[in-house]
Write the structure tokens for this entry.
Amino acid sequence: MDRFIIEGGARLKGTVELSGAKNAALPILAATLLADSKSVIKNVPPLRDVYTMLRIMRVLGVKVSMEDNVVIVEPRGYSNYTAPYKLVSTMRASVCVLGPVLAKLKLAEVSMPGGCVIGPRPIDLHIKGLSAIGADIKIEHGYIVASAKQLKGARVYLGGNFGSSVLATANLMMAATLAKGKTVIESAACEPEVCDLAKFLIKMGAKIKGHGTPVVEIEGVKSLHGAEYTIIDDRIEAGTFMIASAITGGDIVIKGANVEHIGAVIDKLQCAGLKITDTKEGLRVKTIRSLRPVDVTTLPYPGFPTDMQAQMMALMSITKGISVITEKVYPERYMHVSELARMGGQVMLEGPSAIIKGVPRLSGAPVMASDLRASAALILAGLVAKGKTEVSRIYHLDRGYYNIEEKLEKLGARIKREKED
Ligand code: EPZ
């Protein structure tokens, strides 16, 4: 296993280029399973989670290859309909092969994703959506077993107790493309990654309207062909680098950042006192004054993204004053709190809220990554902490950030990856 060694104190300066969005790549790769011919997907980030998805597709019998961030998928003739536990248990997002395989093969078996450190990962909305269009779904021996002679369009309310669901929307949208008749999804997820998936499906010949809004309409078609598509850049990586600039008092330009995808993050960082300008080179994030504490509540898009919560907490932990973060999407997503405390962070949890008392300086310490975004938060804290920070179990980070240490080093950070003994 790898760890990062970070020497805090460097102000970040310069330009960084984003990679493709992991959370767009995963459902779009799953969507290629609906097609009768080859697809070419570009700007795919070379990440552990992407490699896991490619392994699942190969187990299903699909020919896939990846070179220079381009994935070629040849789905013709695949017939295996089971996504195995040993792969699905390493990545919950694997559940998004359920909809396409069911629609294509009329049968699908996907291992239950199981929980993870950010909290329970229920799939009741996935089941509700696919059942509404005619799937017969059972849970057997730890697998979701779905079958359908003919999927039929229906109107489905897909909102849950925590609002819309990104991958439940993706699963239903993908399956509905080959259903008979029209499907209307109410309380659909509006995330840019769901929009990107819809745009790819439309290029494959699907008939979809309303993507990016809470009401999405899908008119079923007989078949879909493969297509060529370039995935959007990663808005969470963009937000993470914005905070890397803010936490070090830096001045960086983020190439590829789409301001329409990160409005809530830009808003909060401007409230905290950062100067953020959209220039032709990219999004410039400059520290012009001492930071102000801000209160943040995470919500489904276009609200403040839960995937940016831990990173924001790192920033607020060195911001003078009291900030409050409330997690409305994953109320237990606070694994990073105890690790930040090891660095001197003062965070008190009160139910789904974290009360953060800013300290003048964090101190470097050995800390342990737990989930993807918590790991990012610990790196951000290490960039500003006094002395050396060791972040172990970096494999969590490699799931969702490509070459982050090189990208940070190019901006002036003192960060090295080394093998853990
Ligand atoms: C996607 O997960 C992302 N993953 C997550 O990013 C992200 O945190 C999440 O959306 C929320 O934005 C991918 O896109 C691969 P949800 P997803 O279904 O779709 C509840 C990262 O760090 N819910 O939108 O699995 C659920 O418990 C990852 O990149 C149900 O109640 O999340 C949560 O409270 C982590 N029933 C809320 O909805 C269901 O059937 C939102 O979850 C499904 C979800």
